[in-house]
Specification:
Number of strands: 0
Helix content: over 70%
Mean pLDDT: 94
Structural class: mainly alpha
Largest sheet: none
Shape: globular
Radius of gyration: 14 Å
Number of helices: 6
Low-confidence stretches: none
Order of helices and strands: HHHHHH
């Protein structure tokens, strides 16, 4: 028996995955990131979770946070899942350092809106 997940649960999954990306890369330099296979794979896995959760969110929920690049998150998930053999690790690093922190903030706001 499968249980139906709510949009709030998908947002919580996204928040947790994005927070883990931040935690896994905190204090690292790019060279450390690409040199640690465990960290690299953990980050890529969490980026996949982000994109998969985006696929499950209804458009009306996404519309509540227009600053979030929903399509880009979904597209990144597809690249990580299907083009894993040709990942641009500098791009992944830039995403973790520049785009994930504001995403966490936006997801926190969205979660609060949904809970209201």
């Amino acid at each position: 028996m499968s249980s139906k997940r709510t949009p709030l649960l998908w947002i919580e999954d996204m928040h947790e995955a994005a927070s883990e990306v931040m935690n896994f890369t905190e204090g690292l330099a790019f060279e450390d990131f690409v040199g640690c296979m465990k960290t690299l794979k953990a980050v890529l896995f969490n980026l996949q979770i982000l994109g998969e959760a985006v696929n499950k969110l209804p458009d009306e929920i996404k519309a509540m946070a227009p600053e979030v690049p929903w399509d880009q998150i979904r597209g990144l998930r597809n690249r990580v899942a299907h083009e894993y053999f040709d990942m641009n690790l500098e791009m992944i690093w830039t995403i973790t350092q520049q785009h994930i922190p504001p995403l966490v903030t936006s997801l926190e706001k969205l979660k609060h809106q949904i809970e209201q």
